[in-house]
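Data availability excerpt. The first of two example chains:
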Amino acid sequence: MHSRVISLKGQNLPGILPPEFVNLRFLRIIDLSRNYLSGTIPPQWGSMENLRNLSLIGNRLNGSIPKELGNITTLQSLTVEDNLMSGTIPEELGNLSSIDRLFFNSNFFTGELPASFAKLTTMREFRAGGNNFSGKIPDFIGQWRSLKTLRIQGGGFEGPIPSNITLLENLTDLRISDLRGPDTPCPPFSKTTLFTNLILRSCNLIGELPESLASSLKVLDFSFNKLNGSIPTGFSELSDTDNIYLTGNSLSGNVPEWMLSRGQNIDLSYNSFTYDNPSSCQPRETNLFASFLNDTISNKVSCLRGSDCQTNRTSLYINCGGDGLSMENYSYDSDLDSGGASRFFLNANQWGFSNTGHFLDDGNRDSYIVKNTSRLLMNNSELYMSARAAALSLTYYGFCLVKESYNVSLHFAEISFTDDDTYSSLGRRVFDIYIQGERVEEDFDISKQAGGVGKAIVKNYTVNVSNSLLIRLNWAGKGTTNIPFRGVYGPLISAISVNPNFYVPPKDGPLQGNGNGVSGGAVAGIVVGTICLIILILGGLWWYGYLKRRDTTEIELNGLELNTGSFTLRQIKTATNNFDIANKIGEGGFGPVYKGVLPDGTLIAVKQLSSKSKQGNREFLNELGVISALQHPHLVKLHGCCIEGNQLLLAYEYMENNSLARALFGPKKWQLELDWPTRYRICIGIAKGLAFLHEESRLKIVHRDIKATNVLLDKNLNAKISDFGLAKLDEEDNTHISTRVAGTYGYMAPEYALRGYLTDKADVYSYGIVLLEIVSGQANIPDRAKENHFVLLDRAIFLKNTGDLMELVDTKLDSKFDIQEMMVVINLALACTAISPTKRPAMSSVVSMLEGRIVPQECGVEQNRSMTEIDRDKMMKQLENINESQIEEMSIPYTNSSTSAVDLYPLDSFSDYLQNRTNDTNKLLS
């Protein structure tokens, strides 16, 4: 008798895979799924010439797939999902001529899919999600004509989605998500493809939705892309589709009536539809939260009308998925709504949540509340007995919060897996965490962070809130999906606590317990006495003159709406070791700059306003007011400020690699070797920061002083714009005539320097100059000017006209650059520095061209581009008349360390590089 089948599924078997199975020459099926096996796959198994099916799902197997398995030409199914395997997929697997099922998902595989896979034309099911693959989704998938199922959610691949996938007539289940790379058009699907599941989530798709899709669809998910246009009329055939997810796009037009009246589980949140007066955020089973154009324009969610803030809160406590309870003097609200696949819920206490997605393939009714049934050995265990779960995206909202800084604590404990030696303990729940739209945790694994299953982990964040707090948990296709059973994945959270990071009067504070406190009369007496004492002290200080000098600053400060944290002078002194001279890293226009360390280890750069400062309170407070309202990956982050006594201080993030100017053309000992990919990424980063200032932020801002010294580089050489002391809010008509011209020689747009005519196109001009500096590695204003024109820009124009643009390129690049990218940057630089501001592109268009979303037009050089002699004379006189306090000179020193903001990165006044440059205005021109 010959053994043909070994099937030991779900037995929790420990140990390793026995190489001796190779002696069972007639073995056809090995199924060891859902056990506790470890070790590697024996390469000896590659000689089992009769093997048809090898299933190892849900174990602890590690190492790589042996290339010897490619010898089993009879193999029809190879499934290793939900393990700990790594390495690249061997090229030899392309020899599996009979294979129709390959499952690699939920491991740690890397590299690209082998080109030899093009030969696997018998493939019917392919899964590769939840890995760390690289490269593009291969076109050869379009040759798998028998393919029915393709799942590569969170696989690490780059787009685009191959268009030939739409020609696979047998494909019914397509799931792709979280692609890297540039924006790409939506594939041309049609109703002839009989999909059951069509999921293209977070794939950087642009353009419009397909005109029509097959009515056979059960799940349609185009969420979190960049799609625009209206919902096609052909979508009416999807009225019987179980789930439609279009959240997180830019869709416009009217919401189809059928979606409001009879749609099931439809999520349209976060779009730009037009709808006059939505009576509810949740008509039937359609989620309309923040889905209308007016929600974006007015910064007010239209479907929440009638729920306006009666009072503003200073704290928030939610027991996610559980009953209300009191703990540590805080009262946690209950959160028992059953949830749903497209659900928005609003609590009477001015908080809510939005859930997107249902658990696929579980075969059961979805449950969005998880209950723990075992004993939890941890502090405050009641808080972790339940949790709210989501399949894709779960967002909690805290409405009506006082505009201030808060300490946000997110409480987690993994209660879905077991803590034993069974396959039920092998699950990995992995998701991302976003707060106020910024990702604060990537690939967050609860049990890994907590040190095991059933253990609590609390993540703490300091968050600036202007009105609403947004906490979003998002599944990006990582982790396991089948342990302990199908459909266990996605984010999970136990509780949320939000506490003020500022003083709150006792009546607005947390619950104080029951009844043994001080009486009301005593409290009143204490308060009155304290107030009187404070008045006497302040009166004495005023009499002796200690408070008089603060009047102007306090009046200016009261006019600001700040959206940042605050520090006491004592905290700043502790961080900088009492402003130790050893921590001084610069001397800028405002005053000295110090490096500091916060108690949590965060490095900061402290800018201090000096009484001898060339720039006064106005610029200092302007910078504080502007940058406190801005948060973007390519803007320097302001941690907080200190305004105490006669001290005015700003605390910025510390930027390890100083300024772009120092990196490119500072003293040699401080220059960095910036290769072309890094320079190109810096170009994109600056452009994105400016596009945000000009077009995307709530405040439309003209920076007015874009230059290489105001572009800072973090430890990863990511570019961030700094120094908002001269920034100006854009006017409604997008123009402004300024009687006070401010900026830097060599970077100011002609119309602004000559006539004070200010628009966001002045920043575009300055950006063009910076591009030329990045390309050439040279400063726009050289050490010694010889003629009356700006050297670098005019040299670029000359080389353009002579067809020798490559001579502009920095010789340090040693020809190691992409010529096409280089030409894009140079032509963009020339377009951005056009004499006429109307000829300059918008920064959003610049970003699109740099990222390859639109094809840049080659820039023709204007025939009369150079300024006339009259214009030159006007500009020279104008520049000569500008007060030194209005134009920041280039003769400030480089530092030998980094902080943040241009004043934090001065240029060494004794450097040969820029010594005495601005004493003679003729040195502005080459």
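And the second chain:
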Amino acid sequence: MKNVAIVGGGKEGLSLLPIIKKSSDARVVLVVDRNPNALIFKLKELGYKIADGLKIKTTSSLTPFLFSDAVDLIIDASEDDETRRLLHSFHLDQVEIISPLSARLIWGHLADKNKGGSVLPASDKAGLLSSLKEVVDAVNLAKDHEELLAMVLRVALSSTGTERGSVMLIDRTEKHLKMAAFQGIDSEIAEQFCGRIGEGIAGKVAESGEPLLLSGRVDDSKLDALMSLEKVKAALSVPLLASTKVIGVLNVSTDRGDNAFNENDLEFLTELASMAAGIILRSQEIEEMRHHADSLMLWKALSAIMNSAAPLDKKLRQVATAVSEHTNSECMIYLPGGKKNGLYLKASSSTSFSSSTHYQLTLGEGIEGSVAQSQSELVMTGSLGNNEKFFLWAFPLLSEGMLQGVMKLTLRSKGEYELEKEIFPGELASFLAKEINSAAKDEKIAIRETKISAINEAGINLIAASKLRDVARIVSTSAAMIFDAEATVFRFKKKDDDHYKVMAAYGAEDKDFRISLFKLDKGLAVDTATKKSPLIIDDFSNSNYQKCDDIIKTGLCSPITWHGDVIGTLSLYNKILRGTFEPIPFDTEDCDAARRFLSYAEKALANIMEIEKTRELTSLDELTSLPNAATIEKSLNGEMERSRRLNKKFSFALIEVANFNRYVVACGREESNRLVSVLASIIVENLRGFDLIGRLWGSRFALILPELGENGKDILKRLIIKISKIDFDPHCLTDELRPVIVFGLVDYSGEDKEVADIMKEAAESLETDRRKKHASRT
């Protein structure tokens, strides 16, 4: 006696109660419905009740424990897909689940006509086939074809009074038979069964397409041997024919006697097999139509995703999710990037995946790396136990002869899984590769346009800058943003400098890292300046440059030129693209973009140098290139402040040619200018490097002599002696016109005086010396 549970307490489920009650081999023990308003719970309100004698339990709680030991068979009469999915998720391997239609066929047609295991009479068999046809026509073949095959087998067993049977189908290789439905056979044996065409009883029928009736003595010794080998006393095996093609075999066997079957049984089973073949063909057609429709929907969804304006990373994640949902698998998509010949995981259907997920493979590493290297697909299967299998597919994504990426699908499944039925892997890989290639090109163009726009914007700021420090700051920070660089170093060499000084750096806040980076950059900058061309370093670990704590991996150093000379360098380190973590090498496109960017920097630096040159010219005497009067006054003021702050003494002196006006009249302006230039050179050559000399006007020079270790007068006397030894063109000079040098000197030790006071005191001292010299000559 089978204990039956009905899931679904509506009208359809309750209508089965009187049918099953008439059965002698089954009884309903449980009715379950998750809907508290279901009919089963409203019977009392309608004036009805289930008889207590039936001992039927009712509940609205659907749990696997309800069916643990007390239930042998479940009739799924639920009216919603969620309940159906929940029921089948319980994995009740020992409990058969059938539909209400199957229940009506079993207990409405078979129960009373096959008592005691006897064979049905011909009239009942005809009615049974008619009833079965009605059931087949009424059900959803796309959803219930497996149950219908089980029902066909149940009819075959009941009508022939046998205890064992199976429906076998030929697999896609057309070399093996697999059991699609079975009864009276160990489930593990049945699920693992893989019979060869031409071997065994069923294999012979599949090969020949002719039915076999094996009952009693068999004349064919080979068939007799097969019966002995398969340990059956009587068997019927008929082919499932689609037109003339064998698509499977229907088998029944028994141990009850040698003459258990006759020709009538064979004829009935042949008709039943024809119906089974029709079920299979119709279900396959419906399945193909469904897959075609589903595939069409998938292709439309994928096209819509890839044609959207979203970033490529986001589109790939949506593609992975769509493919995963369609195939019930986990989908991963890898794109080239990162290290040379590497793959980055760019998208996954896994809920744990995010844009911050970092997973990278080198070419040839792992399954995905091997597929990328060989550029050929890979399929793997394996057993996980409990009849569960593991499937893996990996496809190279190729477009225009180039690897665009790798797509991998993995899933676990009970029994075989044919990916070709769900999607067209080759077409999907080709479509995805073309779309990725196209999207990558579009994104590359967009990035280039964005980069050019950013360069132009930074260029405007550079050209508007009027100070070197502002240019340095803009160059270093803007370059880091534009070129995705983790660190930058900007060096500049002024006119009188002998090396390139670091003017600004980005990403070097840590002191130790900064020191290490500058050491590395020094060598790179020197080589770039020497070659006058950009240098790309793909991997510093394989270069001759000093290592930078293994932090700096890649680099690009570009020269900054002006009038053909290298006046500076810009170094970019560690190119890290958005969504990646590992530095990648800079390329020729980066070089070209850097050239465009630095053209603005060169113009900005040229402007600043022109400004500084103009400032320098306006602060210098045109004849001698020495500081002019305004510059001397400014410098004198600064030295006075320094003296007061540091309590340091300095001297201020004036030197002049006393008879300069006569010299001009006698020798002319050109010769007078030469005299002034020679005097300037002599004074500069005989002063210390940190002394300052300037020309005030005519032949008058001013000297600032800081930190004197001796008397200022002694320095000036030695200077005058040097000047007196110079031969100033004896052809035009008489004794009266020979230059007479006079000087005035003031010492300053922090007194409360103004610049004008010091200048006045020095001038008075000079006039005193002039009078003395004039008196001595007369």
